Structure formats: C-alpha cells, structure tokens
Give the backbone structure.
Amino acid sequence: MNRRCFHLATFLVCFLSLSVWAQEKGPGSGVENRLFELRTYHTEPGRLDALLARFRNHTVALFTKHGMNNIGYWIPEEGDGQTLVYLLAYPDKSSRERSWNNFLNDPEWKAAKEDSEKDGKIVAQVDSLFLTPTDFSPVVKASQADPIRQFELRTYTTHEGKLPGLLARFRDHTLALFEKHGMTNVFYSTPESGQAGSAVTLVYLLAHKDDAARKASFAAFSQDPDWIAARDASEKDGPLLIKGGVKSIRLNPTDFSPLR
C-alpha cells in the first residue's frame, strides 16, 4: 500500500463510524435508532466494481431483511479507487449483533458471496468503529428523492481539555453559520468512550451541492464577521485545535445510496 492510500485507510479506520442516540430508522418511519455504524471496505485491486454490484444486487436488500437500516453508501473522491464506505443503523448493540449473525448465516447471502467471488476474493480488509452523537447533531434523514450531493467528512483534533470549547462553538455558532452559507449539517459526533481520540476529536458530515459550492461556501464562511468573532472569543485562552488538526475527505454517493 502506498503512503497516500495508507493515510486514507488510517483516516477511515479512525473516524468513519457513528453511534447516534436519536435517529430515524428510515425515510418516513419515525422509528428511532440508537446505534450507527460506518463500515469501510478495502477491496482487492480492481475489485471495487464487483463489490458495488454485490451490494446493489444483493447485500442492501439482505441488510434490510435482517433489520439493518441502510443509510448511506459512498466512494471517496480521492484515494486508491478500492474503497467503499457505508453507514448502517440499528436500534441498539444487541440488535446489531443479532442482525449480523442472521445475515452471515443467510443462505441467500452465502450464495451471493460465492457467486460474486468465482473470479477471486473481493474484500481485502473491513474496518468498523462507533461514535456517539453530540447533543446538537441533526437527525439523519435518508431519501433517494434528494438530489445527488457531495458529502464531506471532517475531523477536528483538539488540544487536551479543549474539546468542550470546540463543541460549544459549533453548538452556539458554527452550525448556524454553515447553514447561512449554503452547507447542510448532516451529523456531528465524537468517538465512543474508550476508542482512540474520544476526548479530543469531533467528527462531522456536511453535504454540498457540488465541489464548487463547497469551495464557495467555505470561502464565504471563513470571511464572515460573525464567524471571526466567535472563533476569536472561543480562543481567547489559546487555540482549540492542534496544528494540522483539520482533516477532510470528500465522499460521493453510490447509485444505490439512500442518503445522497
């Protein structure tokens, strides 16, 4: 694996997974899910299309069959071209374990897996982590009726003891300013207690009309006097983020992704 691919994989391993305390089970269902999981699949060279076909034709429906809620499926804009990132939701951890056990033992899944791998192994590595939502995280709403958008996963790493201040700034100022400048707040979370970075990390997902809109929105946001005032007030005792503490990955939804 080259250095660029390694860094992408490391970022996804550390930050691509969600646990949400108040989310809808699916479009229009009105049912809460309390656990989200964002899984990252790294394929064998040249096997991403085969993986996408398996999800499109079999896996997504089988997840639904076994009580898992498909939220979003994405391919990173940059990287090795061998990565699929997807988000599932469950009522709780015990439901997750039961659903996965039933899925893996389903004869339909076993047949689809065997047929899809007749020309060789597809998945080289699977990564999965859980995070908890902030108290200001929006409810995730997934609908294929939405226009296709570009998503952006952003990760902020703070100095020790500075995460509460960062969360307060987002809660009181940043979310509203993002919306003001045309960005859609999708969700906000921190690593679940006991996981790496749980005390110093904010992970959040934005949606943009396209990359040009993303660039224009952030340019306007960065020059907004309200943002500058909020930033300066929050950092009167020193910077909140470590040097190089902002990471971003652009994600494009697949054709079968509910959240798009």
Summary: The longest strand covers residues 241-253. The CA atoms of residues 128 and 180 lie 33 Å apart. The chain has two domains: 3-132, 134-253.
